[in-house]
Amino acid sequence: MFVTEDETKALQDVKDYIDLSSPERVEINHLIMISGLTKTKLTRGFKYVFNITIYRYWLERAMTIAKAMIEDGMQVKEASIMLKYSTIGSFARAFKSVHKTNPAEFKKQ
């Protein structure tokens, strides 16, 4: 895949936006608007340049924030609500996919 210098900068802008935004889910259409790239160029280019999908990058960042919240004493349910998960189960699956342990087990450690 060929990515121009301008496209690489646009992809870095998207990554920076994800880093600076709250851990709430980001909409792909908003990222398209920020970058000025097509959906295909954005998703494939991000994976090519950063070696991770946009979703996985966001998820790892969000779950790192969740882990810090739990380490600081926040209840798992509260963390899931703060991150706008509709159920604790979906939050727990996301947490486990990143940290290889569920949040309740992590909290006990």
Please tell me about this protein's structure.
The chain has 109 residues and is mainly alpha-helical. It folds into 2 domains: 5-51; 60-108, Orthogonal Bundle (Arc Repressor Mutant, subunit A). The protein is built from 7 helices and no strands. The protein has helices spanning 5-20, 28-35, 39-50, 54-71, 76-82, 88-99, 103-108. The longest helix is centred in the middle third of the chain and has 18 residues, at 54-71. It is elongated. It starts with a helix and ends with a helix. The mean pLDDT is 93.
Short recap of the structure:
The protein is an all-alpha fold and 109 residues long. It folds into two domains: 5-51; 60-108, Arc Repressor Mutant, subunit A.
- Could you tell me the CATH topology label of the largest domain: Arc Repressor Mutant, subunit A
Stretches where pLDDT is under 50 for at least 5 consecutive residues are none
Number of structural domains? 2
Q: On the 0-100 scale, what is the average pLDDT?
A: 93
What general outline do the C-alpha atoms trace?
Answer: elongated
CATH class of the largest domain: Mainly Alpha
Strand count, sense and barrel status of the largest sheet are: none
> SSE string, helix = H, strand = E?
HHHHHHH
**C-alpha end-to-end distance:** 44 Å
Specify the structural class: mainly alpha
Number of helical stretches of at least 4 residues: 7
Oligomer: single chain
CATH architecture of the largest domain: Orthogonal Bundle
